[in-house]
Structures are given as structure tokens and as C-alpha cells.
Amino acid sequence: GRVKRWLTFIEPYVVCNMQYGNGQYAPGIDYGDEGRYKCGHNVLLAHGAAAKLYQQKYRAAQGGQLSFTTLVTWPQPATGSAEDARAAQNMLDSEAGWFLDPIFFGDYPESLKATKGQYLPTFTAEQKRLLNGSLDFIAANCFTAKYVSAKPGSTTGFRQSKTSSSGQLIGPQSGVPWINVVPGTQAKMLRYLSKRYSLKGPSGTAVLPSILISSSGVQVPGEEKMQLPAVLQDDFRVNYYREYLDSVCEAVASGGVKLIGWYAWSLFDGFEWTDGFRRKFGLVHVQYASPQGTSAAVAAAGGGLQRTPKKSAQWLSQHFFKG
């Protein structure tokens, strides 16, 4: 087959938190921590079963690889204290570690068991064998970073914020509330994942995990209100990609990271969860409806759903997307 990389699940962290934890996304089931962690457990087992099936029936003929996407919001310790450093690790454990540790180490992170142990199902020996080796590469979606500080007595042990204690943003605000532009974020994530999930080879040397950055993107502030042709001049997005890719390339060049690919989110303006078509992440603008006053121009261009590359598409094609 021509498709060589397959993803069984997209951001199970979001699926389990938002669909079965707080019910914000469809199917809207608010089961709290019990639903959240039961969902995560079943996602892992479903992935393991899919990987086993692929190995038995399809890998020999197709030569493909399997993974699922892990969401990583980089935790920047709010201070230099040991407590905030521990809080940052707890956040990593609760996001990436929740799904990657059972695959690589056979169980959930200790910090997660300490705070959420009553809700975490237990893996049987057979389930651990099912998960072991079921990832051919680590796929990570990484968009932004947050300040993280210790929060004693809380159910997680940490708090996260996009502002420091003095009120300073961690980075420029994008067009969506959950993304601040923080160059270096993906480089830090790559180094962390490479170190934590490296394995020992036959000679005792470290075998680095293959890592794919499976989503990286941003919305320009106010982009949802922009019309043609102004919406095509997305310099904010160009700068985001330039700064993030610079740091990624530096991390790879410095060694200790095995990056096998990087994907922009997204090619076209699309349907973004509960935000629908209001959010614009595309490298290519899609004219979903004829804005008032421009119907003649849209009609002249061939009607609705006109697709026009933005400046970011041109920049990436010149500087990154080369065969």
C-alpha cells in the first residue's frame, strides 16, 4: 500500500477529557474522572488490538507503521523551584505519560497513580504484552506552552496558566485562546520524549524513538473576520512556522533526536471541533460562504468553496516542503 504511516487515534487526551470527562464535546457524557480514565484505558487497549491485527494480517504486505497522536502542551516551570519543576513533570505525566508510559513501561506514571489511582484501571499481564511494542513511532501534536506551578492539595498537584505571576503572557496571543506563540516549545518536547522513551540496544547504547510532529499550526488574530484578499497575508502564521521550525531544526542538528516528519495543521481551513468553521488554521483559505459585498468576486472565481493559498503556504513550499 502507498500509505505507510497509520494513526489509530487522534489526541486521546482530548477525546477522554472532553467527550467522557466533562462532556463538553459529543457525545457529551460527563462521567468525571471515572469516565476520563476508563476511556483512556480502553483507547490504549483498542490501539493494542489494532496494532496486533495489523501485525498479523497487513504489515508484511503493506510495510506500514502504526501510532496514535499524543497531545503535548509544554509545561514551563513558573519559577526555578524544585516544587514547580515537579509540577511540570506531573503535567507531562498527566498528558503524554498517561498514554505513552503504558506502552513503553507497562503501567501509568507514578505521579498519575498517586493523584488519580482510584480511577485508573489495572493492566493485566496479557494487556501489558498487548501494548508492549505497539507503537512504531511517537506521534505528537504540539502547539504551545503554559506556565506551570505547584498546587499542593489539588487533585493534580499543579496549576497551569498562560500568564506568569506578574501577569506577563508566556508568548504572543494567537487567534484562539488556547495557543500562545512560544518558540522552542517543540524542540523541548522533542528532547524530552527522546530522553524519556529511549530504549537500550544490544550493546547498551540508547536507541532513540522515532518521533513525528503530527500537528503544528495557529490561527492569525482576528482571522475569522477577515475577507479576501486581506486574509491571505498571514504574516503571523508565517512567523509562527519560521520560529517553531528553526528550533526544531536546531534540536535535530544538535543530536539526540530522531525526527521522522513534521506536519502543518492544516492544509485547508476546516471544521475545528465545537468551533466549527469559525476557526481558521489552513495554509489555504476556503471561501465557505459569499461574504456580503463580495458575491460577484466569488462567483467570478467559480462559486463557493473557492480555495486560495495564503502567504504561509507559499513560504512553506519555498523553505520546507521540498522533495
Description:
The protein has 323 residues and is an alpha/beta fold. Helix content is 37%, strand content 15%. It has ten helices and 13 strands. The strands form five sheets. Strands 3-5-10-11 form a four-stranded parallel β-sheet. A three-stranded mixed β-sheet has the order 4-6-7. Strands 1-2 form a two-stranded parallel ribbon. Strand 10, helix 8 and strand 11 form a beta-alpha-beta unit. Helix 1 packs antiparallel against helix 2 and helix 7 runs parallel beside helix 8. The protein starts with a strand and ends with a helix.
> Which whole number gives the mean pLDDT?
93
The largest sheet is: 4 strands, parallel
The coarse silhouette is globular
Spell the H/E element sequence.
EHHHEEEHHHEEEHEEEHEEHEH
* End-to-end CA span: 20 Å
Strand content: 15-25%
Q: In angstroms, what is the radius of gyration?
A: 21 Å
Number of strands: 13
Helix content: 25-40%
Biggest sheet strand line-up: 3-5-10-11
Q: By helix and strand content, what is the structural category?
A: alpha/beta
Quaternary structure of the protein: single chain
Question: Which residues sit in consecutive blocks of at least 5 with pLDDT less than 50?
Answer: none
Number of helices: 10
